């Protein structure tokens, strides 16, 4: 490893997950099984991917951990909040993502992961109704309760660092509202005034994490850290933030396939995407106000890859529709259909059909591992604010829209940005060479 300014990953890393449902327990179980040598962390870039460093005779391909000091799986300690009191073992069994035989070898460890009381507002997820909930007078008190949880967990588990990641449900859509979300001072006032319309519970988690010097990652499409007030807080606390929405199934396909159409200069008339899923996420998204949050996230991908302004002949009149349907028999085994109407030479039409029968939590679990380890790395490297290099893992990557910046959604461009960030933190030169 070259000399870098990144602090070493000494001591234990506490990964505190908001939500102890299917995604969280699949993630935790997989990590615990992998460190016993009983499962493989397939799908995790930090555990499998290799990056080329150097050129010519100096060229070599290295795992991330051979380039930068990443936390080891053995050093991870899990904590969680949830509105339901069941421990991580009970929750993993209930979720029915993993077979019992793949959970039981780490049963004792999972049973010790008991959710702390969640900061929750029923109006933000009307389909959920749990009783393991904090009793708070206002949003500020809610945030202070979470801060105390983080401090207590860190001390109790002797952690040297904490990362907080949201793997809970999608909240109702909270549009960015400049008078409240524009500055840190106005956000803090709204929290103290208990402005429940503009301050979502997730914002209390983000504020608490950053204030306790823990990076915060938003794994749902919630507005949470995608506002100038939170960017200001991240700058003040010198902490990384990332979001939003884990890029698992259909959007992963879209961010990888749309560049094929664009690179080949083919035209696009329409892209219809629909999903069926039956897990808790599907139940919450069955509520129109919650689906609106997800819809905004999923729709943003295509228009930043196939730009109508750049190629009006090809993408000037695209019809893009996204649907999610709650269908309990499928549980976590989501199915995504994409119908893509393209046109080619002289405007002649063609069609592409993609049918992805995926497992939502199986695709999401490695993203949680990569996002937490890389956010912890970023913090030790002194990187703070929006972590654009993590866009690869996210459906609707954060960007400074107040300055006209566009998100990068092209999967291959995102991958180049990711590799170069790792290279630079490892003391190597960034480059654009494709390999």
UniProtKB/TrEMBL annotation:
Q: Which Gene3D superfamilies match?
A: Dihydrodipicolinate Reductase, domain 2, NAD(P)-binding Rossmann-like Domain
Ranges for domain Myo-inositol-1-phosphate synthase GAPDH-like come to: 249-361
Which keywords does the record carry?
Answer: Membrane, Transmembrane, Transmembrane helix
UniProt-listed SUPFAM superfamilies? Glyceraldehyde-3-phosphate dehydrogenase-like, C-terminal domain, NAD(P)-binding Rossmann-fold domains
Name of a matching Pfam family: NAD_binding_5
Tree of life domain: Bacteria
What transmembrane ranges does the database entry give?
A: 13-34
Which family, according to the similarity comment?
Answer: Belongs to the myo-inositol 1-phosphate synthase family.
Q: What is this protein called?
A: Myo-inositol-1-phosphate synthase
Protein source organism: Prevotella herbatica
Upper lineage ranks?
Bacteria, Pseudomonadati, Bacteroidota, Bacteroidia, Bacteroidales
